[in-house]
Amino acid sequence: MRVLECTGAVPGAYCGKMLLDTGAEVVKLEPAGGDPLRSWSASGELGPDEHAPLFQFLAAGKRSVVCDAPAAHELIRGADLVIVDGTGGRDLAEARSCLAADDQTVLISITPFGTEGPYVEQGIQANEFILQALCGSIGGRGWPGEEPLQAGGRAGEWVAGAYAAFAAAAGLRRLRQTGFGDVFDVSIYEAMVVTMGGLSAVSASVLGDDAQMPGRSLEMPSIVPTADGLVGFCTITAQQFSDFLVLIERPDLLDDAELASFAGRVRRRAEFVDMVHAWAATRTTAEIVESASAMRIPVAPIGTPQTIAEIDQFQERGVFVKNALGHLQPRVPYRTSAFESRAPGKAPELGGDTGGVRWPARERVRRSGPAADARPLRGVRVADFTAFWAGPSATQLLAAFGADVVKIEGVRRPDGMRFSGGRAPSVEKWWEWGPVFLASNSDKRGITLELSDPRARDLALRVIGYSDVVIENFSPRVMANFRLEWPDIAEANPRTCMVRMPAFGLDGPWRDRVGFAQTMEQASGMAWMTGHADGPPIIPRGVCDPIAGLHAAFAAVIALETRDATGRGVHVESTMVEAALNVAAEALLEQAARGVTLRRDGNRGPDACPQGVYLTAEPDEWVAIAVTDDAQWPALAAVIGRPDLADDPDLGTRAARRTRAASIDEAIKSWAARLKVSGAVELLRAAGVPAARVMPPDALLSDEQLHARGFWEHIRHPVAGEFLSTGLPFRSRTVAAGWMRSAAPLFGQHNHQVLTEIGLGQSEIEGLEAGGVIASRPAGL
């Protein structure tokens, strides 16, 4: 596949890298001055002979062309896929005009808000920090009464790039099958709403006044100082928290109902934190990890730029490899025969391939009929053995793009997200109210199989026999216990592809450890980059689940393409933590290439100064501000009534302002404290300064940009009723009216339908119900 990358920021570059990693030919079409990432370093200005660490990672193996408009248009017309982000002198309008008469190319546009809507019309400027404020991420992180905090490391931009890569892969598959291209209009803001703030808004829509909206909070337990470092915990289930109390030698608290609830721990925060810290302070990180792992409590050492490559799991699996400059970087986060994992190449010299890329127009056969206007994965069948958020987010993407996804849940162990954050057990069918479950399983059919029963395994294999893809995200031992590993799948259906999503991998010393998104954030270095400079690391909160899901869904599409080419199914190991390591790579890259240890710094960031959140005259209402270029600085100084700051020659550059960031912050705080948040935002935007209200998550439900773009999906559920759910963060020319076509399935809702399709009669199905092999109600409830 020919990919033309006309971008100058992380999302488009990561989209191109993901495609390059699968074997695509990727050519960067650069302006004369080069991609802005060529001169970017998060740790400061580059020397004349230095390579930009992030650019080396994202551009390795790509080619570079600098040319005039006619030659650029020839490349655009010869490409299978064009990626545009509006930076570097290239814009969507130019690409559209070149492709208007063609319609045999897939076009990916990645911009902060998409290409239309009120925020676009108003010319609102935003970097990652402003988008985090808008999407509800910052507003939910921290303690009430204290400053809310960003998630460090620009995770939202990487997430948008992964969404773009999935859309690109699916669009290319449709192009190959039908001869018709597509246009995907990707919104970074919407990608961040889905993954970093929107689920709380869904909860508010589903549950109304009963929604659990605690405001700002931090997890307890989470990251704790040890005798020799830091360790991170995660207690998702009640059993895990009970086991944690036993771990810290406080079994006397097992019957303490208040402490067992998160709200109760918040009320007794000082007491709880003190006892955990006192226990951990006398033990090493390794000792704690060993003990917690033995009790199946999710746990990890805190990855730092200096230590992450030394973690035993990563060393044994060869997760970090040397690039062409001899510096460590994460390898491709898949193990599969679907595509070869190549050693990282060298980033191209600017214009080094000018005149050397010849892409004659493709000879495509257009296949008319329903498929030409269908969703890209129409006709694909998926057996979905996933649970919680990471796996279901992957299969929901496949379902939204047209696949027939059959979700398979245990009778005794349903998807745990059914029971999270919904109604009390006293409510009829309370397991149908989990907001995250409802938001992550739309468009699927649902059946139940008690896989501990041999009859259920046989039925599962029959479903697999009709499936193109099998996806699961259990710890490796679970599918082994069910005898549903790759050899079993391949024997049942040689043409099916299997995507496995283990937390840490199918081998290595951490193979059988329990891992959730929080664990990935702790181990990958994401948490290291989040928090106050003088405080402990803080997890970004959940983003690793959709990151893992996006990479797995992308890998599933690539696996299908390989299957179609070879006639045989393939096995893909798409490891959660390795996807996270790629997204969190920048800190390691800076350490390896420049010897600089990046770290958390509150709400400040390397691409803007000043940058922060400032309390306004209204209670707990904060305005987020980010001065992203030097031209905005005098405008900010004028707005806050401090022209003397603009006149100070020592503050003319971002680097200079960073040395006096504390005093600048004080000046902004004094100004913001006299205004309502809406007034502050209005004044700043009118002056061309990027700014936003720090949005509480439930306010997203009335956001004008999201509604104008049709982002919120109107769902009608037979138990939960009508509510708004997060959609997908892009619009497609071929999918005009929403991505979600049906609500998440009731427990066992499609048992009869699916089992009939695989050949069972009514009496057989009734016998399975009587024997507890299938059910329409979770066992024991």
Automatic annotation (TrEMBL):
Name this polypeptide is given: CoA transferase
InterPro entries referenced in this protein's UniProt entry, alphabetically: CoA-transferase_III_domain, CoA-Trfase_fam_III, CoA-Trfase_III_dom3_sf, CoA-Trfase_III_dom_1_sf
Keyword GTP-binding included in the entry's annotation: no
Keyword terms, alphabetized: Transferase
Lineage top rank: taxon: Bacteria
Listed GO MF terms: transferase activity
Pfam family, one: CoA_transf_3
Taxonomic placement: Bacteria, Bacillati, Actinomycetota, Actinomycetes, Streptosporangiales
Membrane-spanning intervals of the chain: none
Keyword hit for Membrane: no
SUPFAM superfamilies: CoA-transferase family III (CaiB/BaiF)
